[in-house]
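User: Just a sanity check before I run the rest of the batch. Below are the structure tokens for the first item. I only need the designed sequence back.
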């Protein structure tokens, strides 16, 4: 009995090494430099002669067979960066340089001094690529009950990572869309979404294209482009210049100009001009 107690006490007492500081950001934008921290602590009676510290990387949703060593420091030897795009920092910290979506994955620090401790966390590197873009155009009658022309909203973004999602929102309501997502090089994607609405529904409406990322265990604000659509035939205007089908929030209303009744083509102006010439004659 006492032998078992002493054995358990020895096992419990032998785990004295610990990782006191560990830091891996959850989310960063492509092109940034990212610092990974891993600090450990030994008990007062421990020696570091058998100590080594390692950093490992595994692709997101990858297996142990895909795990890659990035860094190593063995007691009595200089630290070594095994990955090309790593800068060595103090206290076993490493700096990932110019990260890309391909660097997304699980980063693990391993500290061993006979006993072994590990900590890990996921890093997602995102890319907005071209960012969300939007085009609004009039099309022939769509899949509705009337025979009138409709409005086609098309949103797209290229070279986006990780796996993206586009939402088309009209006055706060998310529309049903047809989506096409195609993988491209370096774990990036091209995505296009379209939605068709009636002219009456679109006229004067605020329409947004919002870019999200799917299957990412971090929260982020969507990337949004917003436009307000105006039907050219919805209100009369005296200008003969071609009007855009839509304007952005930052621009002025293209239908803002109105003939106040005193312009060079107004009836009041013509009557006053005629009266003036009669007096002069």
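Assistant: Here's the designed sequence for the first item:
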């Amino acid at each position: 009995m006492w032998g078992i107690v002493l054995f358990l006490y020895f096992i419990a007492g032998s785990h004295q090494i610990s990782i006191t500081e560990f830091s891996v950001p959850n989310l960063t934008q492509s092109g940034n430099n990212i610092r990974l921290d891993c600090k450990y602590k030994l008990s007062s009676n421990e020696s570091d002669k058998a100590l080594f510290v390692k950093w490992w990387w595994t692709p997101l949703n990858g297996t142990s067979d895909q795990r890659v060593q990035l860094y190593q420091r063995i007691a009595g030897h200089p630290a070594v960066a095994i990955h090309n795009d790593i800068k060595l920092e103090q206290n076993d910290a490493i700096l990932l340089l110019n990260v890309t979506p391909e660097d997304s994955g699980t980063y693990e620090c391993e500290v061993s001094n006979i006993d072994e401790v590990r900590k890990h966390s996921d890093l997602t590197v995102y890319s907005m690529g071209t960012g969300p873009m939007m085009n609004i155009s009039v099309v022939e009658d769509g899949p509705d009950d009337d025979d009138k022309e409709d409005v086609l909203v098309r949103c797209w973004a290229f070279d986006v990572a990780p796996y993206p999602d586009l939402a088309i929102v009209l006055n706060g309501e998310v529309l049903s869309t047809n989506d096409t997502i195609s993988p491209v090089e370096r774990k990036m994607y091209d995505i296009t979404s379209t939605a068709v609405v009636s002219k009456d529904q679109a006229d004067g409406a605020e329409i947004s294209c919002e870019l999200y990322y799917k299957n990412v265990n971090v929260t982020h604000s969507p990337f949004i482009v917003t436009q307000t659509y105006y039907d050219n035939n919805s209100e009369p205007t005296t200008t003969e210049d071609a009007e855009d089908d839509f304007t952005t929030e930052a621009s002025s209303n293209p239908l803002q100009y109105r003939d106040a009744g005193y312009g060079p083509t107004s009836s009041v102006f013509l009557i006053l001009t005629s009266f003036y010439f009669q007096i002069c004659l």
